[in-house]
Write a structure and sequence with these properties.
With 395 residues, this protein is an alpha/beta fold. It has helices spanning 18-32, 49-61, 73-87, 101-113, 128-136, 156-166, 188-201, 257-267, 273-279, 285-311, 337-348, 375-391; strands spanning 36-37, 96-99, 119-124, 140-145, 172-176, 204-208, 231-235, 248-251, 325-329, 350-351, 353-354, 366-370. Strand 5 (172-176), helix 7 (188-201) and strand 6 (204-208) form a beta-alpha-beta unit. Helix 4 (101-113) crosses helix 5 (128-136) and helix 10 packs parallel to helix 12. The structure holds pyridoxal-5'-phosphate (PLP). The site of pyridoxal-5'-phosphate has 13 residues, from helix 4. The site of pyridoxal-5'-phosphate (PLP) has 13 residues, from helix 4.
Length: 395
């Protein structure tokens, strides 16, 4: 008799529940052709013109073989220049490591910085891939419940509490500002306090800054303005409108550079060469002009969505300081956000992300709506939602 084959225990991570919505949306699109996606966490625009031109040029002129594991020099220098301009910090190309999306960066960083059994702290609600990747690597994840009182962001007081509970400081803390799903920004003072606390306690601060540039009037600080012991995560996916190009980066403290180099070379050899050559052009003034116009559109969409949702009685939302999401409490209508999103889709053709993807404790009463898309489409989606909410959605 054949020995039963089973996958590893470490692979048993939570699925993305939005995948169920996406599959149902694809079926509905086939039958009705009316789906509006408010569930995607990505811009609806292509890469900026200079990047497209650089990609064509690279295809015509470069061999596009493997590159250095840490990324091509011109890209590392371009990213360093971007941080010098954006954050006013002294960053050189040596501080920058290019990764295969920030997602690839997180995996290699967690491997380089944490051992199996180490405890890493993150906010709940939060981006689920941190939790799932850490768990797959054998780390313990300690989620801190963060609410409106702290802008859904962790605080030093909460870290003190976690430390008292654990009996030692955690190995790592991950913060995202602006955050996904809430869009909230950590105040500069609070981020600085977290960075100092982490330095004093030997906790690695991982500051996910991939939504920097997509903000609505509120200042966004960088962890490296306070502590170069922290790791800053960046990506061309959000502000730069290049999700599928799979280029991210890290600003790394010195002691992590060799381990990351060794691990990256083994895990992926290098990030995609064509995308690296093209991405150099993302950090030019010409690209910035195009990308800032997208942010102006997100700002209009945000205003429209927040206003219209409030009119429909969906007023309990996290303050969307940045990113392109509204994270809303729909507890008035449901305590099963997965079923509720399925019903909204079935009745309106509007696809939303259920909160359970981001909050295992309270996400059954929340949903995330993306306003990265086209303004007219968002207006249409809101009209449809209004009709169905007025009617009551059972869930
Ligand atoms: C907060 C956050 N971090 C990281 C990522 C991963 O992005 P990428 O791998 O495209 O850089 C995402 C994607 O949605 C995100 O929302």
């Amino acid at each position: 008799m054949a020995v039963p084959r089973i996958p590893s225990r470490r692979s048993a991570v939570e699925p993305f529940h939005v995948m169920t919505v996406l599959a149902a949306a694809a079926r509905r699109q086939e039958t009705h052709g009316d789906v509006i996606m408010l569930c995607a966490g990505q811009p609806s625009t292509p890469a900026p013109g200079p990047v497209l031109a650089a990609a064509h040029h690279a295809l015509d002129t470069e061999i596009l073989g493997y590159t250095e594991a840490l990324g091509i020099r011109p890209l590392r220098e371009a990213i360093a220049g971007y941080h010098r301009r954006r954050d006013g910090i002294a960053v050189t190309g040596d501080d920058v490591v290019v990764t295969t999306g920030s997602s690839g960066g997180f995996t290699v960083l967690f491997l380089a910085a944490f051992d199996a059994g180490d405890t890493v702290v993150m906010a709940r609600p939060g981006y689920p891939a941190y939790r799932n990747t850490l768990q797959a690597l054998g780390c313990r994840v300690h989620e801190i419940d963060c609410g409106a009182d702290t802008r859904y962001q962790p605080t030093v007081a909460q870290l003190e509490e976690v430390t008292a509970t654990l009996g030692h400081a955690p190995a790592g803390l991950i913060v995202a500002s602006p955050a996904n799903p809430t869009g909230t920004i950590i105040d500069a003072d609070e981020l600085a306090a977290l960075a100092r606390w982490c330095e004093e306690h030997g906790t690695l601060l991982v500051s996910d800054e991939i939504y920097h540039g997509v903000t609505y009037g509120r200042e966004c600080a960088s962890a490296w303005q306070t502590s170069r012991e922290a790791v800053v995560m960046g990506s061309v996916s959000k502000y730069f409108s290049m999700t599928g190009w799979r280029i991210g980066w890290m600003l790394l403290p010195e002691y992590l550079r060799d381990p990351v180099d060794r691990l990256s070379g083994n895990l992926t050899i290098c990030p995609p060469a064509d995308a690296q050559f093209a991405a150099v052009a993302a950090f030019t003034d010409e690209s910035a002009a195009e990308l800032d116009a997208h942010v102006e559109r997100y700002a209009r969409n945000r205003e429209l969505m927040v206003r219209r949702l409030a009119e429909m009685g969906v007023a309990d939302i996290a303050p969307p300081d940045g990113a392109f999401y509204v994270y809303a409490d729909v507890g008035r209508w449901t305590d099963d956000s997965v079923a509720w999103c399925a019903e909204v889709l079935q009745r309106t053709g509007v696809a939303l992300t259920p909160g359970v993807d981001f909050d295992t404790a309270r996400g059954r009463q929340t949903v995330r709506l993306s306003f990265a898309g086209d303004t007219a489409q968002i207006a249409e989606a809101l009209d449809r939602l209004e009709a169905v909410l007025a009617d009551g959605v059972a869930g």
